[in-house]
Amino acid sequence: MKVLLLLAAAGLCWAQYNPNTKSGTTSIVHLFEWRWADIALECERYLAPNGFGGVQISPPNENIIITNPWRPWWERYQPISYKLCTRSGNENEFKDMVTRCNNVGVHIYVDAVVNHMCGSGGGSGNGATCGSYFNAGNRDFPSVPYSSLDFNDGKCKTGSGEIENYNDVNQVRDCRLVSLLDLALEKDYVRSKVADYMNKLIDIGVAGFRIDASKHMWPGDMKAFLKKLKNLNTRWFSSGTQPFIYQEVIDLGGEAIKASDYLGNGRVTEFKYGAKLGTVIRKWNGEKMAYLKNWGEGWGFMASNRALVFVDNHDNQRGHGAGGASILTFWDARLYKMAVGFMLSHPYGFTRVMSSYSWTRNFQNGKDVNDWIGPPSHGDGSTKAVSINADSTCGNGWVCEHRWRQIRNMVIFRNVVDGQPFSNWWDNGSNQVAFGRVLPQESGSDLNLNLKLPPEHPATAATPGLWQRFQGPRALAAGTVAAAGSPRPFKSLLKPWGSWPPPLWLAVYLLLQYAVRAYLHL
């Protein structure tokens, strides 16, 4: 009996770290600022057929409407209530999206903004996406309801009420983040209101939550409201399945608050990942691809089974948050494809792909003064539909990195090699590296594979005479190629035998080769 109880407890402890994606899928995509109707279509026509496991959506709760500047992206992070109506759609459209995506095996992960409400200078009235009344100055949000008793104004010890020192743990967690009204999550009433909101989403069918601004909440307060959450809807999930939790905690080192403070509640966003990878791919500060041999925990990252990883996110692709200029984005398409390709080929962490929209940048003194611009929209502020071009790219100002062929192929690649060892590292001591991911073959026969790239192949020119040989029972390997001088950052060479999904994967120790210097002629 003790053994059974221990096993049950271990299962409960692990549950919030499990992404709850459909078996055989290993990545999610952040469809930033997409409308619910477009996400439903994308699940059915593209994400499910191409092996994406889920979608992180923008916050679905009612937010303040900001008109100066005009409808910025960050208005979505200023709640007025927990009603489900935003420029992405209303509650019925939200429910339809969740149902349709779940029905094709693509699950929904909600960006939950529960640390705060709108800014202290938000005024009063019904200028919100559902038309709810609020009075920010009086701390009055009757549609929740929250009153002045439910905020941390009296608990914050700074004269301004704002965070003034990020090395003061109490300030970071009890004071206002950029003037946003900080909720008193030590109160059970507030915890219950947060849990009620999240439980409504669970009932609708979501699979988990990104907890925004987790760094600005006490881990114990978070644990208290997370304990109030229901198990997932059994229409789509096994009985007893708990929601996947991943917490936004920016920790690049040098501050009092650590990502490790939050590991007891769920996975944590590993912001060092994109910042360090961008530095390596750019070859800044003497970094080389060869140094990635021990990528992951060897670089001081958290344990792989506790990390959610990404090359960029909606904040730092605009210079907000963590990583600064080292962050690679769609604006640097060739380098970006290399970084995302490496992320999806390497086994560390649970991976999230970014899908963005473009905007007109305007750099003044090194800063993009247009970094506030919201999604492609009509004159009335309503979001434009995501149109799909004949070549499968997106129109109407949507970038859709997840539809880029190289990234799509690597999402599939990661699914195929999931759980298989990272092996046979090779590097030239500089910016060319190769490694394999070995796959079990279904038959019992040995596979002897000699692979030599043709002499005219640019990768062969970079590494003359390169051979790889694998022997052994049920040995297959998988990989991708990126070669010096190639017009593409990398090329997936994972080839199916027969129809998709194949009964067997054939050929396969290939090369993951990054010849950065020659490729970029640097």
Automatic annotation (TrEMBL):
Biological-process GO terms, alphabetical: carbohydrate metabolic process
Record domain Glycosyl hydrolase family 13 catalytic: where: 26-414
Entry GO MF terms: alpha-amylase activity; cation binding
Domain of life where this protein originates:
Eukaryota
Q: Which Gene3D superfamilies is this protein grouped with?
A: Glycosidases (3.20.20.80)
Check the UniProt entry and state the signal peptide residues, or none. Answer: 1-15
Q: Which reaction does it catalyse?
A: Endohydrolysis of (1->4)-alpha-D-glucosidic linkages in polysaccharides containing three or more (1->4)-alpha-linked D-glucose units
Question: Keyword Hydrolase: yes or no?
Answer: yes
Q: Which cofactor does it need?
A: chloride; Ca(2+)
Q: Mind listing the UniProt keywords for this protein, alphabetically?
A: Carbohydrate metabolism, Chloride, Glycosidase, Hydrolase, Signal
Question: Broadest EC class?
Answer: hydrolase
UniProt xrefs under SMART domains: Aamy
Q: What is its EC number?
A: 3.2.1.1
Instruction: List all membrane-crossing ranges.
Output: none
Q: InterPro entries from the xrefs?
A: Alpha_amylase, GH, GH13_cat_dom
Please report which protein family the annotation says this sequence is part of: Belongs to the glycosyl hydrolase 13 family.
**Protein name per its UniProtKB record:** alpha-amylase
Q: What species is given as this protein's source?
A: Chelonia mydas (Green sea-turtle)
